[in-house]
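Sat 14:20. Reprocessing the chain from the morning session after the first attempt stalled halfway. Input below, unchanged.
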Amino acid sequence: MGQKIRPDSYRLGIIRDWRSRWFPKKENYRDQLEEDVLVRRLINEKLNQAGLVDIQIERNANSAYAIFIKAARPGLIIGRGGKGIEELSKTIESALKKLFRQRGVENPSVSLRLNIEELKRSEVAAQYLAQSIAWDLERRLPFRRVVKKTIENASQNKEVQGIKVKLSGRLGGSEIARREWLFKGRMPLQTLRANIDYAQSTAFCSYGAVGVKVWIYKGDVFKKK
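Finished this time. Tokens:
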């Protein structure tokens, strides 16, 4: 079997939960999906340097939004006196109202609540590692040294039983694009109970874009008795 499916989507409903939690009517699914995509795009654009790890969106029966943001640098999101959260909330609300007006809704109202969570120091997240590698590549650091350092630092955590990093593009500014990867430990991609954290990011270098993919194996998940 080819190993081309994202490990996180492959385990949805088994050991992994959905990042968008709401129950739409059949005729409203497309509109609500468009709203989720808009919210995630705005947050990623505004908080690109905050080390975003996860964005989860919930809706209740009254279509009120509850957005949970997990980041390695929550101080950049909150800002002084909470001004950062207020500005982000206003940006999201104005974008959603604009989208509602385009659908023909007069005087739209948006109920929004933001929750910021900090990434624990003892926790290893694939998304943050992928972003860190991309930032180092944009600073023109040697890609092999960056990958080896990332794997060594992550392997020191007891929770990590295996890690794999893959880079694709004009590595080191070479004329021909290629792929290189480095791994350590186990990586059972076909075992559904294996807790594999997967993420991807892009480094925009002067010689072109370089894709970064990270897999982290954190042991097996069994049902509690």
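The chain has two domains: 7-118, 126-220.
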